[in-house]
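Subject: Re: docking follow-up (pyridoxal-5'-phosphate)

Dear J.,

Thanks for your patience while I sorted out the input files. As discussed at Tuesday's group meeting, I've set up the holo structure prediction with pyridoxal-5'-phosphate included as the bound ligand rather than trying to dock it afterwards. The sequence and the ligand SMILES I used are pasted below, so you can double-check that they match what you have on your end before we go further.
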Amino acid sequence: MTEITKVEFFKHNIDEEDIRRAGDILRSVFLTTGSAVAEFEQVFSEYTGIPHAVGLTSCTAALHLSLLAGSIGGGDEVITTPLSFCATSNSVIHAGARPVFVDVERKTGNIDASLIEAALTEKTKAIMPVHLYGQMCDMKAIRDIADRHNLLVIEDAAHAIEARRDGVRVGELGDAACYSFYATKNITSGEGGAVCTRNKDMDEAFRMLRLHGIDKSAIDRYTRRYQHWDMPVLGWKYNMDNIHASLLIGQLRRIDELWGRRSRLWEIYEEGLSGTKGVELLDTVSGARHACHLFTVLVDPQRRDAILWELQVRGVGVAVNYRPIHLLSYYRKTYGYREGDYPVAEQIGGRTISLPLYPKMTDDEACFVIKVLKEVLNG
Ligand SMILES: *Cc1c(COP(=O)(O)O)cnc(C)c1O
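The structure tokens for the complex came back this morning:
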């Protein structure tokens, strides 16, 4: 066995079969939204168990369109978490509304459902929970609050396609669920996203809004003869194309196998790191199915950046997910947020390091990461 000296932070799982499928599209006539997108939508809807799935260019687009389809805009407020990628709350700003943050649970990093009601105002129109790192939020509690106050629930499921908790799947209790196929997500087409809904009207809105708000798609114009079209509403340019869709179809068929491999690596990390001095792990809710998207450790905030640096010097790819959104310059400037506003998100954001986790990683590579992390912590 060759000695391991480097472990990449991420490697994707596009295989020869996926490449062949994309090659078939590239050799065909029709590249944009057509039969491969329809097939992807069918397979995705079967996997998620949600009747309508709409292929888009990103999860950011999915979040944005969910707000638009829910008629959320100027003067409205949307409750979300400060401990996420900035896409989550940016989508609220894109829709013309205001993101209102609620602090997270110390043990999981997910939005603290028990704090949501105190943040509601007359202007609140929706709750946008993020299933952080692949672990579902308390969706039963969130749905309950939303029902009592007549709010929409838009799930950011970018980390959590495979997750379930308390007997419900990701997306099952939301009005819309938004997924990402960005380069480092559980399945990927480089860039890409989808939105799923149980609501037929929302599905129709998504299909119009993803293509400028026009009432005929390119496939309508292609499969039949040219037809005039109208634009009843103003939409955006967010439609997934056949090339991207073709890369996702095979990965979706392998998704549980890919999850199984990440889940095994997760166990190796947990066994190797639990009880290690200087490292704390987040809790995983018992009985739930964690999508195992990002494995994070919490370290001493005084040493976090030095540890992060030293891991990279020693060949371990790492990332930080996330420094809290409210402390990014734009949010400070625009909304006047300051340090101390969301102390738990700040604590986790100041201590967290994400380790490599992907199906192509070997058990030996996971052991290498554990060994290097322990050396760095003691060094
Ligand atoms: C990646 C990510 C997004 C954005 O996904 P895109 O497909 O790149 O737009 C949104 N939310 C979370 C939590 C993410 O990790």
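A couple of observations from a first look. The longest strand covers residues 52-56. Residues 16-253 form a domain with the Aspartate Aminotransferase; domain 2 fold (CATH 3.40.640.10).

Let me know if you'd like me to rerun anything.

Best regards,
T.
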